[in-house]
Amino acid sequence: MTDRHRGPEPGSLAGIVLACCAVGAVAVGVALYGPPLSLSGASWEPGAPGASGTPTSANASADRPAPASPSAPALARADGPDYATEEYGRRLVAHTAELLGPDHPDPARRMIGSRLNCGSCHLGTGTEPGTLNLLQTFEHYPRFSGRAGTMTDIEDRINECMQRSMNGKPLPMDSPEMMAIAAYLRGLGTQYQAMGTSRRKAEEPPPFKAPPRAARVDNGRTVFESRCAICHGKDGLGLLATGDPSRGYLFPPLWGPDSFNNGAGMHRVLTAARFIKARMPLGEPTLSDDEAFDVAAFINDRPRPQMANLEQDYPDPAAKPVDNPYGPFADDFPLEQHRLGPFQPIEEHYKARKKTK
Ligand code: HEC
Ligand code: HEC
């Protein structure tokens, strides 16, 4: 267990469960699946394989309020000019599920369909150097996006994670929330400039290198059970921070209705394996390349919310990453190989194509 976890209040459910983890007695509940989500362009299909949960305890989330309809009004603008502050941006990144989640009492603020936080993947609210940090993000925009096929601003990129990683809706460009997150990212850039060289260095194992074979989902299940289930739950559905789903997760779900959708970057096997090798198990990232590769494939093989119109991504399909898990492709490799590898032949195909152009 690391001290990076948000400190649970003594006596809270999280405290009890953390104590359980410490003695190795895993007692993680299985979430019931809530009503299907119908956020713009994204849905959760309870009929998907593996979607039958056993009813249980703390984690049950059967009585969720209905998610926001696509016609929900834009976020209300708050009054004060100080509202869109860096500090508000930091809170949005750290506590996204609570501030914009599907349980928010104000329907207009239910912007995300998952119950993840931005910080579930961008660790330390994006301040930890290394994999998926957001320290230098601001200065990289505007930039060309192959996925969108056009130049994109930082706000567009934030909305990509809103619609994919968070399985939600885009934040209105002029909402205090969008301005606050952008201001926070600008502030991180300033912070990075001021950091000493030693603090800029990531403490991570050597970067993931894809094994020259297809990932093995079955072996990934074994890795999951021995190295991940203790925190993320035997069912991978995570562990709520308290009994109340509106407070979000202490250990976020890796699949299921509260997780990222199939259009997310984390749903690509190489992206997920890179993150997992660098960061997971949290506080003890000791997986080999083979283990990280297989467990990433296992996670991405499990059911999760589906995003609509994915075939419209990458107007130039040759710009697709080799591990993009959905077509159309500008090559003849089967979809299965794009999902699980081996990736080296696909990479070589594109390298050769570039040379002959
Ligand atoms: C499920 C994991 C996950 C969550 C949750 C998530 N992201 Fe991301 N984010 C990624 C990944 C992976 C990338 C890397 C790009 C890719 O491969 O798609 C990324 C990239 C980004 C980038 C671009 C970084 C750069 O340097 O260009 C920004 C900005 C960003 N995310 C913001 C957010 C915000 C804001 C939220 C919450 C609203 C969020 N993300 C939630 C996984 C996540
Ligand atoms: C000690 C507890 C712990 C263990 C063990 C652990 N994780 Fe995590 N994991 C976390 C926490 C906590 C977060 C969210 C980080 C945050 O909110 O600061 C996380 C986040 C993630 C995420 C991104 C968010 C999401 O829900 O998709 C992935 C993917 C992930 N873990 C995969 C794994 C895999 C694979 C393993 C096993 C190899 C693993 N984790 C083992 C605690 C753990």
The biggest sheet, with number of strands, parallel, antiparallel or mixed sense and barrel status, is:
2 strands, antiparallel
Query: What would you report as the Rg, rounded to the nearest angstrom?
Result: 20 Å
Indicate the low-confidence ranges by residue numbers: 1-74, 77-81
CATH-defined architecture of the largest domain: Orthogonal Bundle
Strand order of the largest sheet: 1-6
Instruction: Output the number of helix runs.
Output: 12
Q: Looking at this structure, what is the CATH superfamily of the largest domain?
A: Cytochrome c-like domain
State the share of residues found in helices, binned by percent. Answer: 25-40%
Large-scale geometry = globular
Whole-number mean pLDDT: 83
Terminal Cα span: 52 Å
Q: What would CATH call the class of the largest domain?
A: Mainly Alpha
In total, the number of strands is 6
| Classification by helices and strands | mainly alpha
SSE ordering: HEHHEEHHHHHEEHHEHH
Present as ligands are: heme C
- The domain count comes to 3
Give a description of the structure.
The chain is mostly helical and 357 residues long. The chain folds into three domains: 165 residues, Orthogonal Bundle (Cytochrome Bc1 Complex, Chain D, domain 2); 122 residues, Cytochrome c-like domain (Cytochrome Bc1 Complex, Chain D, domain 2, Orthogonal Bundle); 43 residues, no CATH class. Helix content is 32%, strand content 4%. The strands form three sheets. It has a two-stranded antiparallel sheet. Strands 2-3 form a two-stranded antiparallel ribbon. Strands 4-5 form a two-stranded antiparallel ribbon. The structure holds heme C (HEC) (2 copies). One heme C binds next to helix 4.
